[in-house]
């Protein structure tokens, strides 16, 4: 039985001109009539590419490849066979200037050592259970399951060796139209990190010519288990290492959220966002209420919460969140079939690590938009179920649509 299905892709959006000097751009600007400068560019199908090259060797001796997906617009996405880690998403700003809008490390040992040491998870595929399981424990079909506690007293993002630290098998997806993509597969043995069932996981990364990156997650099991998969990219639409995202604006399609206790575990309550700093039903500057003394903001040291995306039915992809950087004009809209989105303003980054740009990363230098099931769902029967049984298929898709807003510079 299929428990949920991939939803149809959102309506294709216009692609964006790469150069502010294009005739179309200049005539639009001189008209001065449009706030949003959405232009049709001519995609170059011959630019579409899939390639791979060696990225380094893990301390275990395993070799890691880095893959590049490039679309006909010149947008590209890079990821590793290690953890499925997205190391770069290169997108143009409103003037056609391309920047990498995700945080990461220049070298593999950053991902293997620093990221693991500080529980950072830059760009990684997260499993088996995204976010926290209280005390690492839950009851499934009457049996108490103990998973590896790696964030005392809880299990965070799958335990000590989660999917973010596994070598995934990668192959090019064929037969895609106006897109380029890769399939990543992993088999997680029965009992891994304490989770029951042999799990077969397939994740597709597809970059299309409308500057959309879609991530489809599928899984099956041979014993009842629980599962919560996401990607942990840290976005900064000004470019990684460009400073804080406090001036980005954020809108979240959610009327409610799941408040957490001091161990960052949901209390079980479904709370309205109204009259709280978590109300992003209309766009707000992220920094506007970041220093609010609302108890939830103090517990999270900023935003680190699961919003309940409106309209969940298990299979329809709907808008979850939109982020806009007024300075570069870059925009990002996230849509998903998943029930929730963990929005995290990189509250733990403290200047200890620097990215490929050579700039150190500090608190609020990025925003993670982790579409997923609610944290600790196995301990909250009222939350949408994360149980996966033999014969069922886990199937969720999240789409990151990149764009620009605002007029290009004339020069
Ligand atoms: C969690 C944070 C955690 C971060 C990095 C997020 O998904 O919600 O609490 O600090 O991941 O591990």
From TrEMBL:
InterPro entries: Ald1_epimerase_CS, Aldose_1-epimerase, Aldose_1/G6P_1-epimerase, Gal_mutarotase_sf_dom, Galactose_mutarotase-like, GH-type_carb-bd. The active site is at 232 (proton donor), 370 (proton acceptor). It catalyses: alpha-D-glucose = beta-D-glucose. GO terms for cellular component: cytoplasm. Its EC number is 5.1.3.3. It comes from Acetobacter indonesiensis. Residues 1-35 form the signal peptide. It comes from the Bacteria. This is Aldose 1-epimerase. PROSITE patterns: ALDOSE_1_EPIMERASE. It is an enzyme of class 5 (isomerase). Belongs to the aldose epimerase family. It is found in: Cytoplasm. Monomer. CDD domains: galactose_mutarotase_like. Pathway: Carbohydrate metabolism; hexose metabolism. Keywords: Carbohydrate metabolism, Cytoplasm, Isomerase, Phosphoprotein, Signal. GO terms for molecular function: aldose 1-epimerase activity; carbohydrate binding. The keyword Calcium does not apply. NCBIfam families: PRK11055.1 (NF008277). GO terms for biological process: galactose catabolic process via UDP-galactose, Leloir pathway; glucose metabolic process. The gene is mro. Beta-D-galactose binds at residues 131-132, 232-234, 304.
């Amino acid at each position: 039985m299929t428990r949920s299905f991939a939803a149809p892709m959102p309506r294709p959006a216009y692609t964006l001109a790469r150069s502010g000097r294009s005739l179309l751009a200049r005539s639009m600007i001189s008209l001065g009539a449009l706030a949003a400068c959405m232009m049709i560019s001519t995609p170059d199908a011959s630019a579409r590419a899939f390639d791979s090259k060696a990225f380094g060797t893990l301390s275990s001796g395993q070799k890691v490849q880095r893959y590049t997906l490039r679309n006909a617009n010149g947008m590209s996405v890079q990821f590793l066979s290690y953890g499925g880690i997205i190391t770069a998403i290169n997108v143009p700003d409103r003037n056609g200037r391309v920047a990498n809008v995700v945080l990461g490390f220049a070298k593999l040992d950053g991902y293997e050592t620093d990221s693991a040491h500080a529980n950072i998870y830059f760009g990684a595929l997260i499993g088996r259970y995204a976010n926290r399981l209280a005390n690492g424990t839950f009851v499934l079909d009457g049996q108490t399951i103990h998973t590896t506690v790696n964030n005392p007293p809880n299990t965070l993002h799958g335990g000590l060796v989660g999917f973010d630290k596994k070598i995934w098998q990668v192959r090019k997806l064929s037969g895609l139209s106006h897109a380029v993509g890769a399939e990543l597969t992993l088999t997680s043995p029965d009992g891994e990190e304490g989770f029951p069932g042999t799990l077969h996981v397939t994740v597709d990364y597809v970059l299309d010519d409308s500057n959309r990156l879609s991530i489809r997650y599928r899984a099956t099991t041979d014993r009842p288990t629980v599962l919560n998969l996401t990607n942990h990219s840290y976005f900064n639409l000004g470019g990684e290492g460009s400073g804080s995202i406090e001036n980005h604006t954020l809108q979240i399609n959610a009327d409610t959220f799941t408040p957490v206790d001091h161990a960052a575990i949901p209390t079980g309550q479904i709370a309205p966002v109204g009259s709280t700093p978590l109300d992003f039903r209309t766009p707000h500057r992220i920094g506007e209420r970041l220093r609010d003394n609302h108890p939830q903001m103090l517990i999270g040291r900023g935003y680190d919460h699961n919003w309940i995306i409106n309209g969940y039915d298990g299979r329809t992809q709907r808008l979850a969140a939109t982020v806009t950087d007024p300075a570069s004009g870059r925009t990002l809209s996230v849509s998903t079939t998943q029930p929730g989105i963990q929005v995290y303003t990189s509250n733990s980054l403290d200047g200890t690590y620097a990215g490929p740009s050579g700039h150190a990363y500090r608190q609020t230098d990025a925003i993670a938009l982790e579409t997923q099931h609610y944290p600790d769902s196995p301990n909250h029967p009222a939350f949408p179920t994360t149980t996966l049984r033999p014969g069922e298929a886990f199937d969720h898709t999240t789409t990151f649509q990149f764009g620009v807003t605002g007029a290009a510079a004339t020069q």
